[in-house]
């Protein structure tokens, strides 16, 4: 998921990076200007990035129920699955980095080590899944994802050491796995949670990577836009690009699509408007009401529309 193919690298370096460097971003919409409007938060409330960016409930009533009505429900299967996939991928990257430090440029030892670690990563994360049926499905899908990651890592590893046979472990780690996973950042300057966690941050050139395990939605760009603002507010360097990675299974066949996007003024403003609207909803305790259509995966269906069945959105 975190490895770009040659085609993707060409797209990134030949098109998106030059575009992102040319792109004009209004100074008012750079995260480092968090002390003045429109970035300055209007209310003393901290939201998570997903609370701001999620539009699965078109009215945001899920946020109202959770933050105002205090209704905290256990995660449903879609959420448990998403957490599981994020967690195994993050574990895999961390263990791979540690193993490269131990085995250096010895690919055989590294491969053996990681092959033996995959079942342990799965086992550790499956312990958090209660439903036996879901555990079985997640185990199979998780194995497919990690096998794919291992093959990608070995390819990237081989490519790197063939170019630089005398490379040291530190440089090797940086070149093979140039991502920081689950980067913890403090979003409080922008009215966001002080304990945010970004899926991955590509470190050659600032690119926010966001993994998605469901179908594509137009609001998915808002999460990375929020992280770009937070990184800019903390570190004062520009973040102009993101990559949405869509992972799905078609008849057990793993499908991965990567979409690069520029973090333009328009998406920055969309994120800020969502933040302001949702902060106001929480601060003024406004119930936004029930929309015409709800997702059949929403965990609040029984509260909002007991007894009714809705189309998937
Ligand atoms: S059930 Fe419908 S209204 Fe209630 S939170 Fe979910 S999507 Fe929103």
Task: Describe what you observe in this structure.
The protein is an alpha+beta fold. The protein has ten helices and five strands, in the order αααααααβββαββαα. It has helices at 6-22, 49-53, 61-68, 77-103, 107-126, 132-163, 169-176, 222-235, 265-283, 301-304, and strands at residues 179-185, 196-202, 207-212, 241-250, 253-262. It has a five-stranded mixed β-sheet, with helices on both faces. The chain binds iron/sulfur cluster. Iron/sulfur cluster binds next to α3 and α10.
Feature tags:
313 residues, alpha+beta, Lambda Exonuclease, Chain A, binds iron/sulfur cluster
Ordered list of secondary-structure elements with their pairings:
Elements: H1 6-22, H2 49-53, H3 61-68, H4 77-103, H5 107-126, H6 132-163, H7 169-176, E1 179-185, E2 196-202, E3 207-212, H8 222-235, E4 241-250, E5 253-262, H9 265-283, H10 301-304
Parallel strand pairs: 3-4
Antiparallel strand pairs: 1-2, 2-3, 4-5
Helix pairs in contact: 3-9, 4-5, 4-6, 4-7, 5-6, 8-9
Bound molecules: iron/sulfur cluster.
Iron/sulfur cluster is lined by residues 57, 59, 61-62, 290-291, 294-295, 298, 300-301, 304-305.
Summarize the structure.
The chain has 313 residues and is an alpha+beta fold. It contains ten helices and five strands, in the order αααααααβββαββαα.
The overall pLDDT, averaged over residues, is: 93
Poorly predicted runs = none
Distance, first to last CA: 25 Å
Number of domains: 1
Biggest sheet record: 5 strands, mixed
DSSP strand count: 5
CATH architecture grouping:
Alpha-Beta Complex
Percent in strands: 5-15%
Global morphology? globular
Helix-and-strand structural type: alpha+beta
Radius of gyration: 21 Å
Helix content: 40-55%
- H/E series, N to C? HHHHHHHEEEHEEHH
* Hetero groups: iron/sulfur cluster
Task: State the helix count.
Answer: 10
As laid out across the biggest beta sheet, the strand order is 1-2-3-4-5
| CATH-derived topology | Lambda Exonuclease, Chain A
CATH class: Alpha Beta
């Amino acid at each position: 998921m975190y490895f770009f193919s040659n085609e993707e690298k060409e797209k990134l370096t030949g098109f998106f990076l030059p575009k992102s460097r040319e792109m004009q971003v209004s100074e008012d919409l750079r995260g480092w200007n968090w002390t003045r409007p429109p970035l300055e938060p209007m209310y003393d409330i901290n939201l998570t990035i997903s609370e701001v960016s999620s539009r699965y409930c078109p009215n945001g009533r899920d946020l109202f129920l959770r933050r105002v009505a205090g209704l905290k429900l256990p995660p449903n299967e879609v959420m448990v699955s998403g957490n599981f996939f994020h967690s195994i991928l993050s574990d895999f990257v961390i263990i791979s980095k540690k193993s490269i430090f131990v085995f250096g440029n010895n690919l055989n030892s590294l491969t053996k080590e990681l092959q033996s670690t995959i079942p342990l990563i799965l086992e550790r994360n499956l312990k958090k899944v209660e439903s036996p049926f879901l555990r079985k499905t997640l185990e199979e899908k998780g194995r497919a994802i990690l096998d794919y990651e291992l093959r990608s890592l070995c390819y990237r590893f081989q490519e790197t050491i063939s170019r630089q046979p005398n490379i040291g472990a530190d440089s090797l780690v940086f070149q093979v796995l140039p991502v920081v996973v689950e980067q913890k950042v403090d979003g409080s300057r922008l009215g966001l949670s002080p304990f945010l966690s970004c899926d991955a941050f590509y470190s050659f050139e600032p690119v926010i990577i966001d993994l998605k395990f469901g179908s594509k939605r137009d609001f998915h760009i808002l999460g990375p836009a929020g992280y770009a603002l937070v990184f800019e507010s903390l570190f004062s360097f520009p973040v102009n690009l993101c990559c949405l990675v869509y992972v799905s299974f078609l008849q057990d066949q793993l499908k991965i699509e990567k979409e690069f996007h520029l973090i333009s003024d328009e998406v920055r403003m969309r994120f800020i408007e969502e933040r302001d609207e949702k902060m106001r909803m929480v601060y003024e305790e406004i119930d936004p009401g029930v929309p015409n259509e709800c997702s059949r995966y929403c965990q609040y269906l029984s509260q909002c529309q007991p007894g009714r069945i809705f189309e998937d959105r």
